[in-house]
TrEMBL record:
Residues 229-240 have a biased composition (Low complexity). It comes from Gonium pectorale. GO terms for molecular function: nucleic acid binding. Keywords: Transcription, Transcription regulation, Transcription termination, Transit peptide. Residues 229-251 are annotated as: Disordered. Residues 241-251 have a biased composition (Pro residues). GO terms for biological process: DNA-templated transcription termination. The keyword Phosphoprotein does not apply. This is Uncharacterized protein. It comes from the Eukaryota.
């Protein structure tokens, strides 16, 4: 008869946690075994969302947790954004004069803004708006809050050609700020399709600027059989992250 005082050499299997396919089953020896304990789950430590540095960066400047939660549901990759770029864009927006509520609006409408390069996208865009377009600081704040996708546009390849296109429609330089603030999507690629359609409808060129500002035209409209020259004929990647949508209503 085997002695009951001897140490049992049986091993207990540690079950694999549900929802983590990367975990493998391991064996945990009973006390007294010469084998060291092996806990596979110890190699995979998930950082709590509450301590995520990106989340903390937004909450620290006063963005509400509701805005953060809504944005992170819309953009799950937000948690893995580089903190250096996040802090850079936040500093730029704060220096412009955006409030924590404004930044929450930008975060929900276009979270991808916070992974942009400050030197190659957001910074040059703000400089373009101030110098080339002649927008005041307050006007830049209003435009960025309402139309945050502009931060991801390329100045040389997108914004300057669009500004020249507006001038070709007869928009005088002094009227550009008012037009852009009233209809920010005139800076997007859809304006060529809209103006081509208006010309086919017989709208005189000299009335284009007034019409663009006065009427809420859908610049994302695609008209069958209508192709317009210029930037809109390029691939959808011309617009970073795809065509922009207006900011969703805040609860």
């Amino acid at each position: 008869m085997a002695s009951t005082s001897g140490r049992c050499s049986a091993a207990v299997a540690v079950p694999r946690p549900l929802g983590h396919s990367a975990f493998s089953r391991s064996v945990l020896p009973l006390p007294g075994s010469s084998r060291s304990r092996q806990l596979c789950c110890g190699a995979f430590k998930t950082q709590p969302v509450e301590s995520n540095p990106v989340r903390k960066a937004f909450l620290d400047i006063g963005v509400s947790s509701d805005d953060w939660n809504r944005a992170s549901r819309l953009e799950p990759e937000l948690l893995s954004y580089g903190t250096e770029r996040v802090h850079g864009i936040l500093e730029l927006l704060l220096e412009l004069g955006l409030t924590n509520r404004d930044i929450g609006t930008v975060l929900i409408a276009f979270p991808q803004a916070f992974r942009l390069s400050l030197d190659h996208h957001a910074g040059p865009v703000v400089e373009f708006l101030r110098t080339d377009m002649g927008l005041s600081r307050e006007q830049v704040v209003a435009l960025v809050t309402r139309f945050p996708s502009i931060l991801g546009m390329n100045v040389k390849g997108q914004l300057r050609p669009q500004l020249a296109f507006l001038a070709s429609l007869g928009v005088p330089p002094e009227a550009v700020p008012g037009l852009v603030l009233a209809r920010p999507l005139v800076l997007g690629p859809g304006i060529e399709s809209v103006t081509t359609f208006l010309r086919r409808c017989g709208v005189p060129r000299q009335q284009m600027a007034r019409l663009l500002k006065s009427y809420p035209i859908d610049y994302r409209l695609h008209i069958r059989g209508l192709s317009a020259p210029g930037p809109s004929a390029r691939s959808p990647s011309w617009w970073p992250g795809g065509p922009p949508s207006p900011p969703p209503p805040r609860g």
